[in-house]
Amino acid sequence: MARGTAFRQHRAYQSADQRLGAFNATARAAAPGGGAFGPAKAALLARHVRDACDGLDGVADGIVANRAACTAERTRLESLRCVDGVDAGDTCLSDAQLAVVNAWTADHAFQGSNATYSSKGYALSGNEDDPSGFGLWATGNGDVRQSGYFVMQDSTVQYYLAKDPKADSLGYTPWDRNPQALDAMAALNDATDPDIGAFIAHGGKLIVWQGGSDAALSVDSTIDYMMQMARAVGPERAAAATRFYVAPGVNHCGGGVGPDQTDLLVALDRWVMENAAPATLLAEKFDAEGAPVQSLPLCQYPLYPQYAGPPNDAAASKKAANFICVAPQSDGS
Ligand SMILES: [Ca+2]
C-alpha cells in the first residue's frame, strides 16, 4: 500500500486524457490558415517514409515492420521541405505542413496542479496515405474539422476544460491553462495505473495488442505503459502474466495494409485453461469474401517479422512462413 502510494505520487502520468492535448496540438497545426494536410501531401509523406524504411524488414511490401530502425535520422523529413518553406505543390511540404507532422510525432506534456500528464508522439509508419488512418484521425484528409482529433478535443475543451459550449477549441492553448480542470478530467477518466499486481496475484493473464499504424492511440504510449507496468510489478511477473504484440501496418483496432486478424481470445483461453502461454501468434488478412490473402507472424514486442524468403517473390512475401521474428539491432538496423 505504502509502496503503491509513493509510486503514484512520484510518477508522471502517462495520461489517456492528455492524448486529447496532443490531438489539440495537431488539430491546431492543421487548421485553416496553417498546414491543411490533404491526400496528396499524405501520399508524399507516406512514400517518403516507405522509401526510407519499408525495406529494413527485408521486403518492400508497404509495411514498415522494423519500426525501431525507422528513425528521424533515416526519414530526414527536412528533405521534404519546399523552397523557403512556402507551399509549392504536391512534391514538397511547407513549413506549416511540416509543423503538422512535427506536432503529430512529438511527445507532449501538460502540467496539472500536482502531476505532469504526458503523451508519447506517433511514429511515422509509411501508411500516412491511408485515408482511414492518419487521414481519418489526424488531418481530416485535408479538412481538420472532419478529423477524429478535432471532434474529440473540441468537446473536451468545451465541456471539460473551458466549460463553455461555445469555446473555440482551435484557439485553446496552452492545453494546461486550467490545471485543476486537467486534474479533474484525469481523475474521472484515466485508467493508466501500471500496477496490475493485484490482477496478476489473482491469476489474471493479459494480452495487449495494437496496430502498428494506429493513428488514434500512440503505439509508443502503449509501449511506455507496458514498460511502466513491468517496472511496477517486476519483470518476472510481467513476463509470466502478460504479452504485448504490435501488428505492423494495422490501423486503430483493425484495417490498414497489414494483416489485422489474430484470434487473441483463443490464445488467452489456452493460456488460462491449459497453461499454454502464447508466444509468436499468426496475423492474417482476409478479402471481402473472407478468403485469406496475406499472413505475418505476430511477434512479441520488441521483436518484429523479418522477411527470410526468396527475393523478389510477391507471393512468398505474403506468407507468414517466410518470416522470422527478430529483435531490432541496437544500432537501429
Ligand atoms: Ca516491409
From TrEMBL:
GO molecular function, one term: hydrolase activity
Keywords recorded for this protein, A-Z: Disulfide bond, Hydrolase, Serine esterase, Signal
Hydrolase recorded as keyword: yes
Domain of life: Bacteria
PANTHER family: FERULOYL ESTERASE B-RELATED
Identification of the protein by name: Tannase/feruloyl esterase family alpha/beta hydrolase
